[in-house]
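Second attempt. The first submission of Leucine-rich repeat receptor-like protein kinase TDR had a stray character pasted in from the spreadsheet, which I only caught after the job came back as garbage. Lesson logged: always re-copy from the clean sequence file. Corrected sequence (278 aa) follows.
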Amino acid sequence: LGKIRHRNIVRLLGFVSNRESNLLLYEYMPNGSLDDLLHRRRGSGCGGKGDGDMASEADWATRYKIAIGVAQGICYLHHDCDPVIVHRDLKPSNILLDADMEARVADFGVAKLIQAGDESMSVIAGSYGYIAPEYAYTLQVDEKSDIYSYGVLLMEMLSGRRSVDPEFGEGNSIVDWVRSKVVAAAAPAGGARSKESRAGEVLDPSAGAGCPQVREEMMLVLRVALLCTSRNPADRPSMRDVVSMLREAKPERKAASQRQRSPPAAPPPPHKCDAVDP
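This time the job returned cleanly.
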C-alpha cells in the first residue's frame, strides 16, 4: 500500500506496531473528511456559500469535484494496480480533503488485494449501511463491492443525509429511501413536473438543488448512484465507466462532447484513471 501514488489517494507514510496498537501514518489533510463537510457544515444557495454560522463549502461544485476525485482514486485501485486493490470500507469519514478540497481516499485498514481466483473472505469487513447486500451472505469480495459503497456515498452527497437514518424506516438504508422516492416519481399519476419534483425530493437544497442547472447535474449523478447500488452486482458499472458517466454529467461537458461529434473527430485515447502522482 505504501507504493500507491495517485492524486486522489492519501499517501501512506509509515506505520507503528506494538503490543498496544497498530497505527498507520498518513499525510495530513487540513480540511478534514467528507463526513465533516456534509454533516457539520451545512449551507444553502445557488451553488454559492451559505450565510450560517460557518461558511459552507458543501455546495454542489465542491461535492461534484469530490465525487469525481473519489471515483478516480478507486478507478486507479481497480484498473491500474496489480494485483487489484478493493478498498472494502468506502464511506464519507474515509474520504479526506486536502488544502484545495481535492478528495483523498484513505483508511485501507480492511483493504483486500485480489489475486486471480481469490475473492472470498473469512470475516465481514466494512461499515453498516455501505456493505453490498450480497457480501453479507456470500463473503465474496470484488470490485463490485466498492462500486456499491461508492453509490451509497454518492447518495449521501446528493441528499445530505447519512446512510442510515430513522426517517428511512426500520431496517431501511438510504438506498431503500432513494429508490422509494424514484419509484414514486415513476408512478403514472401526475404530470412530468410533478414526477420531477418527487424524484428531486432526495436532493439537498443546501447544495443548490433549487437552481435548474445544478438540479440537472444532480439528477444525472443520481442515475449513476442508482446504477452503482443495483442489487445484482453484474448490473453495476465498472469504476472506469463511473468516471466517464460522471464527467458527462456536467451540462457544459455534454455540450462540448456534442460539438466534438460534428464534424467527426479522431477517437479519443483509451481512458486512464487520471494522473498518477510521481
